[in-house]
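Tokens as discussed.
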């Protein structure tokens, strides 16, 4: 065999008890698993792994590496965590399918997530072209880790309808159905939606149902960032479950949580809703990150009517004194739909990244603290940031609850997703720490999950949702996307003060049987490729 991993503790992803074994790899596949006491495997290279655990590679079910994979060959933020597959195209906004107009608009709309893309050659327009670009990136060498893609419903609506807050016409809906179908035919694994982001949030339930029926026909799944994680959270979850029930489309709830003061301790209500749906046969799963703060763009907090017309229209409204005051009223007094129906508390909104270098001094401060230093009201500071940074400001929102986080991660259909935004001087540490934080903090230290349970949440469960028949388990014939870690020391290095610190206790990571991490250091291997939808039989 090409490689034999000797004497390792195999945590195989099934959730069953771990065991000691030799594991052999040949040609990118697992070609032997010999338990302790069976005849030993032999190979051209032998790695003594006593003291380490071996698991399938971790699958990040909610990633924002759409451009990072194209610009950064090392991609240590994910490779060092043991992530071997990321799911991109999240929250209804990404870079395919587009035309020349919508490409420019979406680049501006999500600059806070991915940068403005000025260092990327956007030589694709369709989903297939984007996936092909991943495969031939860096001179045809590929990318750091594997990547799957969701058709972004907001981008599709931008293409077909524009930024108008109105129902789609019959012709526009037909075009959206075609764009979603084409994306799935070209390899997307499903469709995402961002229902607190414009223009995706302008879609009504019947429009979403029509698109979900297309997704169901291709065996994909719908991954919504639903309409509220705050005042209307339970109703928003119920809407998405009802959509799945109505259309037969599999449902995967993105970064599922219950945030803001109105939802403290209410996670059991969400899980009861899911249990009822599962008992009825609804195909539903979810992902979460093991932290309490969220992360988004500052512009996302604005009321939906302020986003109508696109980014330039938003900036024009912010520059107009009367309209800006109306926005402030909705944000601070009413509770805008962009801020989940809860009046914004500027003490909880921390500036984590800016696009304009002249604004970098504000990173790491809350909006209220920045305003106090400038001697002005918080809205004046937020407004100025939005205008001067051309909507590119990223923020952390400290609005979560630890008891909700722990309760949700125990559920039987839970998977892991970082929601990792890599942009900005002080990103959320989840981008660099989600998976070792699950294994170190929530498994070893707190015992919320057993090691076997945690690994299943991060490997086989997401692989099943993605309908990948040869990933997510340590089995002969499966892909050799593997992680070796020390269960006694694995931990996230990333903190809110030092968010780009790499984890500890993960010395080896293999993608397609090749070491992308060896002895705790990133190699120059680019073994990642696009992972495309498995056709329905």
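Sequence:
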């Amino acid at each position: 065999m090409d490689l034999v991993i000797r004497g390792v503790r195999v945590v195989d992803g099934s959730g069953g008890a771990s065991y000691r074994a030799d594991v052999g790899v040949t040609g990118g596949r697992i070609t032997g698993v010999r338990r302790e006491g069976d005849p030993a495997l032999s190979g051209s290279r032998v790695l003594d792994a006593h003291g380490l655990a071996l698991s399938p590679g971790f699958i990040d079910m909610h990633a924002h590496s759409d451009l990072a994979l194209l610009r950064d060959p090392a991609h240590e933020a994910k490779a060092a965590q043991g992530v071997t597959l990321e799911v991109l195209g999240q929250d209804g906004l990404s870079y395919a399918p587009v035309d020349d107009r919508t490409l420019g608009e979406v680049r501006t709309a999500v600059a806070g997530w991915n940068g403005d893309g000025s260092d990327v050659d956007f030589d694709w327009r369709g989903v297939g072209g984007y996936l092909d670009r991943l495969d031939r990136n860096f001179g045809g060498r590929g990318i750091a880790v594997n990547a799957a893609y969701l058709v972004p419903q907001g981008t599709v609506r931008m293409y077909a309808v524009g930024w108008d807050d109105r129902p789609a016409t019959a012709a526009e809906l037909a075009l959206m159905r075609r764009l979603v179908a084409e994306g799935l035919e070209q390899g997307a694994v499903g469709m995402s939606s961002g229902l607190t982001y414009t223009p995706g949030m302008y879609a009504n339930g019947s429009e979403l149902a029509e698109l979900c029926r297309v997704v169901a026909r291709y065996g994909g799944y719908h991954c919504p960032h639903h309409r509220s994680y705050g005042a209307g959270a339970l109703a928003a979850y119920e809407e998405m479950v009802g959509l799945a029930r109505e259309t037969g489309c599999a449902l995967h709830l993105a970064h599922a949580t219950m945030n803001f003061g109105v939802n403290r301790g209410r996670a059991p209500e969400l899980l009861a809703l899911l249990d009822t749906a599962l008992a009825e046969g609804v195909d539903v799963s979810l992902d979460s990150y093991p932290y309490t703060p969220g992360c988004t763009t500052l512009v996302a907090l604005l009321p939906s009517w302020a986003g109508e017309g696109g980014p330039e229209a938003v900036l024009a409204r912010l520059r107009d004194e009367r309209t800006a005051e109306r926005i402030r009223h909705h944000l601070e007094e009413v509770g805008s739909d962009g801020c989940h129906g809860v009046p914004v508390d500027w003490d909880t909104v921390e500036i984590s990244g800016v696009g304009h270098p002249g604004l970098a001094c504000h990173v790491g401060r809350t909006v209220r603290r920045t305003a106090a230093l400038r001697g002005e009201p918080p809205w004046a500071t937020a407004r100025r940031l939005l205008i001067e940074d051309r909507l590119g400001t990223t923020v952390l929102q400290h609005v979560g609850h630890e008891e909700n986080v722990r309760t949700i991660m125990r559920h039987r259909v839970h998977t892991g997703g970082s929601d990792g935004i890599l942009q900005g001087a002080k990103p959320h540490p989840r981008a660099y720490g989600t998976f070792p934080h699950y294994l170190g903090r929530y498994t070893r230290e707190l015992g919320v999950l057993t090691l076997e349970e945690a690994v299943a949440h991060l490997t086989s469960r997401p692989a099943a949702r993605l309908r990948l028949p040869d990933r997510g388990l340590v089995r002969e014939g499966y892909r050799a996307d593997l992680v070796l870690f020390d269960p006694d020391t694995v931990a996230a290095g990333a903190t809110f003060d030092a968010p780009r610190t790499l984890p500890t206790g993960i010395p080896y990571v293999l993608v397609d049987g090749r070491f992308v991490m060896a002895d705790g250091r990133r190699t120059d291997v680019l073994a990642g490729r696009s992972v495309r939808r498995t056709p329905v039989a």
